Amino acid sequence: MRKLIAIILLLTTFNAFPQNAFTTGEYFKFRIHYGVVNAGYATLEVKEALRNGKKIHHVVGKGYTTGMTKFFFKVDDTYESYFDKATGKPYQHLRKIDEGGYEKHQEAYFQQANNTVTVKDRKKNKEKTYTVPEHVQDVVSAFYYLRNHKDIDKLKVGESISLDMFFDDEVIKFKLKFVGREDLKTKFGTVSSMIFRPMVQAGRVFKEEESLTVWVSDDENKVPLRIKASLAVGSLKADLDSYRGLAHPFTVKKK
User: What is the dihedral of CA 13, 217, 45, 166, to 10 degrees?
Assistant: First the structure.
C-alpha cells in the first residue's frame, strides 16, 4: 500500500486565477478504500499565511491509515503549499511522509523570478537547486491551479489541460484529460459531475497511464467527489466524506 495516501493528496484538489473556486477555510475529508477495506482518510484545508506582509494561500494536506490497515502498513503523510492568491504561483512546498517505514522530509523554495527551485532535504541534511520552466507548480498548488483554470468548463470530451509540475526532484509534464459528465451518487445525494483522467506514469504504481479517474462537481466549486485508481496491486477508491467552508453553494440534484 505504499504511496496510496500520497496519491489521494495529489489528486483530490483540482485553477488560471482568479476564478475563486475556493477560499480560505475550505476543508475536505475523504474516506479511502483499498479494495473492500476501509484503509484510511485524507484531509485538505485552505488556510491563510503572511509572506513579506502579503496574504497568501496555505494549503495543508494530510493522509493516514486507520484500523487494522495501520498495523500492516502505517501511513502518516503531510503535504503543504504556500502560493500566491492572485497568480497561483507557489512560494514554498513541504513534503513529510512516512509510508510503511519509507520516510522523506523535504522543503522546496520556488524562486519564480529566476526559474529555480531550491530543495532542502531535512533527513539527509542536503540542499540542491534545480532549474525549472516558467510558471512551474508544486504538487499541491498544481491541482488548485487546475481546479480554477479559466478553460475548465469549456473543455470538450477528449481535450486536455497541461502544466509543468515539480515533484520528487524533477519536472513532470502533467496532463489532465476531460472524459465527460455524469450524475454521481454520493453520501450527500446525486451531484452533477465532470470526469477527468490525469495522465500518470505507468509501471511503478499504476497499471497504465490512464489508471486514475477523478470526479469533481460540475459547479463553481469544482469539489472533488470521488477518485478511483487501478494499481499494480489492487484498486483504490476515495469518496468525499465531509466538507465545509465552500466558496459557493454546493448543488445537490436530489437527496
Answer: 10
